[in-house]
Amino acid sequence: MHKKQNHIYVGLDLHKDTHTSVIIDCWDEKIDSITIENKPSDFARLMNKVKKISGKLTPVYGLEDVHGYGRSLAVVLIERGMIVKEVNSALSFMERMSYPTTKKSDDWDANCIASVLLRKLDTLPESNPQDLYWTIKMMVNRRDSIVKAVTTLTNQLHENLNYNYPSYKKFFSDVNSKTALAFYEKYPSPNT
Predict the structure, then answer these.
(1) How far apart are alpha carbons 58 and 98 in whole angstroms?
(2) pTM
(3) pLDDT tens digits, one per residue of 155-170
């Protein structure tokens, strides 16, 4: 069990271009907030501000990194010896919904992330941005994009073939076979 009064809590709402952070104390009161660009040169600005505010307290960073935009920030923070936790987006969503009026802004999201970090610090997982998993994720995303493109092109081919060759499925059972594609390339319409 951590002593809450020994820490300040930095909740980070991460986006492609900017990161918004809110710093709270152990009583869940907002001390300050800062928005930085998602680039390593701005990460130092965040850490300097947090260091200035924290004094003798230990800063704890909570990242809600749904799309992987905070990977480089997490790496920098961990390399500098900071405590970095992953905050599940479902937890911050529930925190946001627990208020009578729901707000939606980056600053409010970061505040909710910091509040979750304060209450659940002991149970949240450590941030672990491993290159292997990131690389696999990028490859899977690329593969998904290629599969979508192939499906779109195949559907377009079927549509165009159906226009010029209404009974094309009787000629070739697989319209993507080398023979079928060569035939349709040489004879794009029955009149050729």
Answers:
(1) 28
(2) 0.71
(3) 998 888 888 788 888 8
